[in-house]
Design brief:
Elements: H1 15-29, E1 30-33, E2 36-40, E3 51-54, E4 57-60, H2 66-75, H3 89-97, E5 101-112, E6 123-126, H4 130-142, H5 146-150, E7 164-168, E8 171-181, E9 185-192, H6 201-209, E10 219-225, H7 229-238, E11 241-251
Parallel strand pairs: 9-10
Antiparallel strand pairs: 1-2, 3-4, 3-11, 5-10, 5-11, 6-7, 7-8, 8-9
């Protein structure tokens, strides 16, 4: 069986603007020190990848030697953002030079406009509201619901505000949360609980997240794995503009 193919983007950002947006998204996704990846950005703060490629540029872990970084930059100099090549030819050449390089994983990045709208009238709860505070108090008292526990939301702190919940009959059906946050941008995290999938609730959670006042001054990003076709369908239904493809290489 062949691997699932990414959904073809319906709209795309112009290449020159895409490059700037991909650089801003990289700045949002990672904590960078002198242009190198020190870790994932808050609130995650986990170890970052060995190499990250976006918009014709690469970023590497802070332990990569400067001489090796120079070689990698020469190999990727002619790559263009949004290339249809999967993966770009230079990526394999970079992997050959990197010690302990794992298997690369591809991603798709989209621009999420402030105030994104989608059809539907699901009940939403925004972090910081009285409803959210009551719900968090219930979770603290009774424990996290099993559906959220199964998705690794072990405690209230794992909800990563600001967030927007879609709730049905008192149960959390979908959650859009702030997976990464920098000084100029924020990256969406999105989950739909299995019992509620296929009903358009993810899009309503995304729309609710995009209007949260805490994010008003930030550029918002929606990104997903190339293999996550369900997430790509959400982006298509919302009419999000495609920025470009990204590649991430973890340590073996």
């Amino acid at each position: 069986m062949s691997d699932p193919q990414p959904t073809a983007p319906q709209r795309a950002v112009m290449p020159a603007h895409a490059r700037r947006l991909l650089e801003l998204e990289t700045e949002t996704r990672f904590t960078l020190k002198d242009g190198r990846i020190a870790s994932e950005a808050p609130p995650d703060n986990a170890p970052g990848p060995l190499l990250y490629m976006a918009g014709g540029r690469i970023w590497v872990d802070e332990t990569v030697a400067p001489q090796l970084l120079d070689q990698l930059n020469r190999l990727t100099r002619d790559e263009t953002p949004g290339s249809e090549t999967l993966p770009p030819p230079s990526l394999n050449r970079c992997l050959a030079l990197l010690p302990r390089a794992g298997t690369p994983s591809g991603g798709l990045s989209y621009l999420l406009p402030q105030g994104t709208q989608t059809p539907g009238a699901a009940r939403t709860i925004a972090s910081g509201s009285a409803e959210a505070e009551n719900l968090e108090a219930r979770f603290e008292r009774d424990g996290m619901p099993s559906g959220l526990l199964d998705l690794n939301f072990r405690q209230v702190a794992d909800l990563w505000p600001p967030y927007c919940l879609v709730v049905e009959d008192g149960d959390v059906a979908a959650l859009a949360f702030t997976a990464r946050r920098g000084s100029r941008g924020a990256e969406l995290g999105l989950v739909t609980l299995p019992a509620f999938r296929g009903r358009g609730l993810a899009g309503q959670a995304v729309a609710g997240w995009s209007v949260l006042p805490e994010l008003r001054e930030l550029t918002l990003f929606y990104s997903t794995a190339m293999t996550n076709l369900a997430s790509q369908r959400v982006a298509a239904k919302l009419g999000l503009s495609f920025i470009g493809r990204t590649w991430e290489v973890a340590r073996a």
